[in-house]
Design brief:
alpha/beta; FAD/NAD(P)-binding domain; D-Amino Acid Oxidase, Chain A, domain 2; 20 strands; 42% helix; globular; binds flavin-adenine dinucleotide
Length: 590
């Protein structure tokens, strides 16, 4: 048995562990870093791990913080954003369903990652940068030491060899093995019951193949033929299925279901998963009938949180070793970026000053961001078949994401002095309040209004120019630390105005009685929405006068989500709104 000392031992060389090693190496060039993983290279292309689609935050982390942009452009697929087809495939062909997605390749990039390829390459880069890799070796025990004493880490392998490492920092990046979370009893429920199954096929599956060439109008919408580069979501009641193209030429296919709506048995074998697709998304199932699945995996319940992820006793949990929320909108690697960035700062501060006490606050802040993210997904899949609700939800969720979480990361708020960062996160609580309300609104809209498939719409999100596009394009701008809080406040005011418009829109879409029920159930009168009194009168005007009088936010929402369904069964919209918002009692000072 040989003993070796390191500043940092990272347990697990998956995406979280390997990206953390790269970040640490760049910020702490003199630190000694070891990284351990039982699976040795070469890792297989494509059929390695799930977690292939990145969104803006994680891409910024990989491309800019870790300086991997040219590598990503060369070795992975530039992504055409997230593309959604709500409405379910059992009754409507794909061309008859609403399509929601970006009109062009991204200005702020995101990528489809081949995970086997990425992890092979990251390990090689880390090794070349001086990280000591122990591949084929597994951590069998960790003895966490108090005070300044080193932690002791027992390794087994390769070939049965036993080794002991000592380290000032121990980072658990073992994914769902959750070495430390299990040992210390840190795992916590998110109260979000959802299941998933996935497999890969060894060929490109292009969403355009699912619509006959004779449907020229549908194909014309994608003249440059870039739809296939999107993460494609086929959505119906209580489920969604994905197609993700990989640079190795494979396609990743997955199914996610709400555990309260669909049992695990519906997807827990390849045959069942294919049968599920055949029932709910027959066009997808038919296209996948020929190519054999190259692998198959499933999770009965994939979401969980944690009591704590960083400790002043010099340990940290990153990636799925700590938390995982949901794959819809692909936020998994965003939370890797956030956790790694806090862990890096913590380790840097400790190695330079011997003080790791910020761990308590970083842990609390990370978990606050994580816990709030659950709201976006919990009990929402019931509405996934509903095109009107999903269009509004996707619009809103993107606006929130680009306005707060992305800004926080892109503007490096995690590096701010603690008091300043606390203010930024407190501003986040205000965003959260609107976000929770919006999710309750979407759920109630779906529950009370039911699903109207109606005419298929083509919704470009974000359309340029628009408020949503501004939120997205603003990610390219850097602001001084002192400007961040005012920027977030401006963005929050805008999102609250948007929420006001969404509330009026939902009240306009629902039957009058259902609108009043929604208002009562959600206690709309207490929301203090920034809706001008005059706005309440506009929907009684002629379409031309109404359009002229609407605010720029109201016009923008309408342009993105489409005009509300015309209805003449409400005698006075103003009276209806006032009754629902209880506006005579609680008119809001603007
Ligand atoms: C259905 C589903 C779909 C998803 N889709 C997306 C997506 O589209 N985009 C996205 O960003 N995220 C997605 N995710 C999340 C993504 O998969 C995870 O965030 C990511 O894979 C976690 O990486 P990790 O490094 O924490 O864990 P892993 O990648 O699992 O790595 C853990 C590593 O630890 C090693 N290890 C285990 N035990 C030990 C031990 N005892 N000693 C040493 N090493 C050990 C393992 O060999 C492994 O290499 C999805 C998740 C699910 C469930």
């Amino acid at each position: 048995m040989t003993g070796m000392d390191f500043d940092i031992v990272v347990c697990g060389a998956g995406m979280a562990g390997s990206t953390l090693c790269r970040q640490l190496r760049r910020e702490l060039p003199d630190a000694s870093i070891a990284c351990i993983d039982p699976i040795a290279r070469p890792l297989p292309d494509a059929c390695h791990k799930v977690g292939e689609s990145t969104v803006e935050l994680a891409t910024h982390y990989l491309a800019q913080v870790l300086d991997l942009e040219s590598y990503l452009r060369e070795d992975h697929i530039l992504k055409n954003g997230l593309r959604f087809f709500p409405g379910g495939g059992a009754t409507h062909s794909l061309a008859e369903r609403t399509e929601i997605g970006p009109p062009q390749l991204p200005i702020v990039p995101s990528f489809q990652l081949d995970r086997g390829r990425l992890e092979n390459d990251l390990r090689a880069m880390n090794e070349a940068d001086g990280v000591q890799l122990f591949e084929g070796a597994k951590v069998t025990a960790v003895d966490l030491a108090p005070g300044d004493a080193p932690h002791t880490i027992a390794l087994s392998g390769p070939e049965g060899a036993k080794r002991t490492l000592r380290a000032r920092w121990f980072v658990d990046a073992t994914g769902r093995r959750q070495l430390l979370a299990r040992k210390l009893g840190l795992r916590r429920s998110t109260d979000h019951l959802a299941r998933a199954a996935w497999f890969r096929v060894g060929e490109r599956v292009d969403v355009a193949e699912l619509v006959p060439p004779s449907d020229t109008a549908w194909h014309e919408r994608d003249r440059t033929h870039i739809r296939w580069q999107s993460t494609v979501h086929f959505m119906g009641e209580g489920y969604w299925a994905w197609l993700i193209p990989l640079s190795s030429g494979f396609t990743s296919v997955g199914i996610v279901v709400d555990g309260d709506i669909h049992p695990f048995e519906a997807i827990h074998t390849e045959a069942q998963a294919r049968a599920f697709l055949a029932e709910h998304e027959p066009e997808v199932a038919a296209r996948l009938a020929e190519p054999p699945a190259r692998d198959f995996r499933c999770y009965r319940e994939y979401s969980y949180g944690a009591e704590r992820v960083f400790s002043p006793d010099r340990w940290a949990l990153v990636g799925e070793a700590g938390t995982f929320v949901d794959p819809f909108y692909s936020p998994g690697s965003d939370y890797i970026a956030l956790a790694n960035t806090y862990a890096t700062r913590l380790i840097r501060e400790d190695l330079t000053t011997g003080d790791a006490t910020n761990a308590d606050r970083f842990s609390e802040w990370y978990l606050r961001l994580f816990d709030e993210s659950v709201v976006t997904f919990r009990h929402m899949m019931g509405a996934f078949g509903n095109p009107a609700v999903m269009t509004a939800k996707i619009y809103w969720d993107n606006l929130q994401y680009w306005s707060f979480l992305c800004q926080l990361f892109f503007q490096r708020a995690q590096e701010l002095p603690l008091d300043h960062q606390q203010e930024v996160l407190d501003e986040g609580i205000e965003f959260t309040r609107s976000h929770r309300r919006a999710q309750a609104l979407f759920r109630a809209w779906h529950d009370l209004g039911g699903v109207t498939l109606g005419e298929a719409r083509n919704v470009y999100l974000p359309p340029i120019p628009s408020i949503l596009a501004n939120a997205y394009l603003d990610l390219q701008k850097r602001v001084e630390p002192a400007e961040l809080l005012p920027l977030l406040r401006t963005k929050r005011a805008l999102t609250e105005e948007v929420l006001g418009e969404l509330v009026l829109r939902v009240l306009r879409e629902l039957p009058e009685e259902a609108g009043r029920t929604l208002a009562r159930d959600l206690e709309l009168a207490t929301w203090e929405l920034p809706i001008e009194s005059r706005r309440l009168t506009l929907d009684d005007l002629s379409p031309r006068d109404r359009r002229r009088a609407l605010s720029s936010v109201a016009k923008d929402v309408e342009r993105c989500l489409g005009k509300p369904t015309p209805r003449d069964d409400v005698a006075s919209w103003e009276a209806h709104y006032r009754a629902c918002l209880d506006r005579d009692v609680t008119d809001v000072a603007l």
